[in-house]
Structure formats: structure tokens, C-alpha cells
Design goal:
Elements lengths: L6 E4 L5 H12 L3 E6 L11 E5 L5 H15 L4 E4 L14 H11 L1 H17 L2 E6 L12 H21 L4 E8 L6 H4 L8 H19 L4 H13 L6 E4 L1 H12 L2 H11 L5
Parallel strand pairs: 1-2, 1-4, 2-3, 4-5, 5-6, 6-7
Helix pairs in contact: 1-8, 2-4, 3-5
């Protein structure tokens, strides 16, 4: 099967931001390939064709991308949404846990890019949209591995964008703030908890829970992703929602000492 409609591939499309993005892209006129690690457990979405994919597996990524090409004949937009969180002090999380975060959030993005980019170069167009976070440019105590993974995504995407523009392809970054998904509740906890971090860890956990509960709806992020996919003159970075916009301004314009104090104040840590 081939199609004359643009085709978008969205990883992690079974729930949350990925699900809303898949639906928003359908509404914008795309044929959408969504992925999940176990499609047998995914409720059908109108206009979305699901494929099994584990972004942490080389063979899985290769097979899924080929299946999408076989089905639709092309991929015009890749949305690298699949990701995992990490909670706990840096000293408490094992290297194995940190590797898992990077294997999904960073190397998962790289695996997808390496499989999809040759098809985009061959057709002379395409957009790669990588989901970062405000933690791609802000620090976050008790989420060091996650913040580091999103900082890595930002550097990788910005560098990639310079490489692929001459081939008609753009690599773009979408930066959500806190979003009402299961992110915080589903994030792995430290496998070597330490009493030294217990009290402040509970404080930051509480801050994060409240922030997610009062955060943006996933549809806010989905609309931003559609804009990145369809803008005639795309920007390198898209902030999703007003809180993300304020965070960007804080990072860019606040003096270092004020910025540091604000980060501690936001997380209810002693000055």
C-alpha cells in the first residue's frame, strides 16, 4: 500500500502525549503509524495504524520502520515521543538504571533517526521531531539522569539539524513542561535508596506530583508537535504551553544567582 497523504510515525502512541499527537496528526491530514511495545493491549484509534516497537531494541526498530515503509511507502514526519522518567537522587540510582534511561530516551531516538533518515533523504524531504522537555535546558534535583538524557537529546537534535537541512530534512525539538500524564507515577524509583536523601526526596516528589497534576493537558503538547510538523518555516525549538515559555525566559535572562535560587525555591530546597 502507498498513499499520497503525508505519513507520520509516532513512537509511544498508545497513551498520553503520543496518543494525543497521533490523533492530532490524523486531524491535520496525515496517515499515522503509531507504535507501542505491545499493540495487543492498545485500544484502537481512528486513523492510526499500530506497529509493535521497542525503541531500546535494534532489531525491533529496524523491523518496525520497514513495516511502516511497506505499508505506506513513505515517512514524512518522525515523532520521537517514547521515553521513560527517572526519580531519585543521582547517588541512589544505579548505573544500570541510568543506562536504561539513556537507552530509551537518547539511544532510542538515535536508533529511530538512523533507520528513518535514509528514507527521508531519498525522498528529499522530512521532519524529525524529538520530544525534549524543559529539563533539556533546566536542572532538576532528584531527576539528574532524566535531565541529562533530555540535555543530550537537545544537543543531538540541534547538531543533526545542521547536517540534514541540505537534504530537505529538518530536525526539531519540542519542549513540554509538566504535563498531565502518568509520567511521575510511572517513573522508576531508586534501587539503592539512601536515608541521607529520603526527606528531601519526598519533598521533591510532592512538588513533582503537584506540578504534574496542575500541568498542561497532553493536547497542548500535541498541538505544538503538529505545528512543528506543518509550519512552512519551522523553528528549531518549540516550547509547549505557557509554563514552558516562562521556563525558557528564566533560563535565558535570569542572572545565574537568581536562577539558582529560583530552582531551589521551586523544589522547596533550602537556599
Amino acid at each position: 500500500m502507498t498513499t499520497n497523504r503525508p505519513v507520520a510515525l509516532v513512537t509511544g502512541a498508545s497513551s498520553g502525549i503520543g496518543k494525543e499527537t497521533a490523533l492530532a496528526l490524523v486531524a491535520a491530514g496525515f496517515d499515522v503509524a503509531g507504535t507501542s511495545r505491545d499493540t495487543s493491549r492498545v485500544a484502537p484509534l481512528d486513523g492510526v495504524t499500530f506497529f509493535d516497537l521497542d525503541v531500546a531494541g535494534d532489531a525491533s526498530v529496524t523491523a518496525a520502520v520497514q513495516q511502516v515503509i511497506d505499508r505506506f511507502g513513505r515517512i514524512d514526519v518522525l515523532v520521537n515521543n517514547a521515553g521513560v522518567g527517572s526519580m531519585g537522587a543521582a547517588e541512589e540510582t544505579s548505573l544500570a538504571q541510568d543506562r536504561d534511561v539513556f537507552d530509551i530516551n537518547v539511544f532510542g531516538v538515535m536508533r529511530m533517526v538512523k533507520e528513518v533518515l535514509p528514507h527521508m533523504r531519498a525522498q528529499g524531504r522530512g521532519r524529525i521531531i524529538n520530544l525534549s522537555s524543559v529539563l533539556g535546558f533546566l536542572p532538576q534535583p532528584y531527576m539528574a539522569a532524566y535531565a541529562a538524557s533530555k540535555h543530550a537529546v537537545e544537543g543531538y537534535t540541534e547538531s543533526l539539524d545542521h547536517e540534514v537541512r541540505e537534504h530537505g530534512v529538518r530536525a526539531l525539538i519540542v519542549e513540554p513542561a509538566y504535563t498531565r500524564t502518568g509520567f511521575e507515577a510511572n517513573s522508576p524509583r531508586p534501587d539503592a535508596p539512601l536515608r541521607a536523601y529520603a526527606e528531601l526526596g519526598r519533598t521533591v516528589d510532592s512538588v513533582m506530583t503537584d506540578a504534574v497534576r496542575n500541568g498542561d493537558a497532553p493536547t497542548v503538547v500535541a498541538r505544538t508537535i503538529v505545528a512543528a510538523a506543518t509550519d512552512s518555516k519551522p523553528k528549531l525549538r518549540y516550547t509547549a504551553g505557557p509554563l514552558a515559555g516562562r521556563a525558557t525566559a528564566l533560563r535565558r535572562f535570569a542572572p545565574a544567582r537568581i536562577f539558582d535560587k529560583q530552582i531551589r525555591r521551586m523544589n522547596k530546597l533550602a537556599a
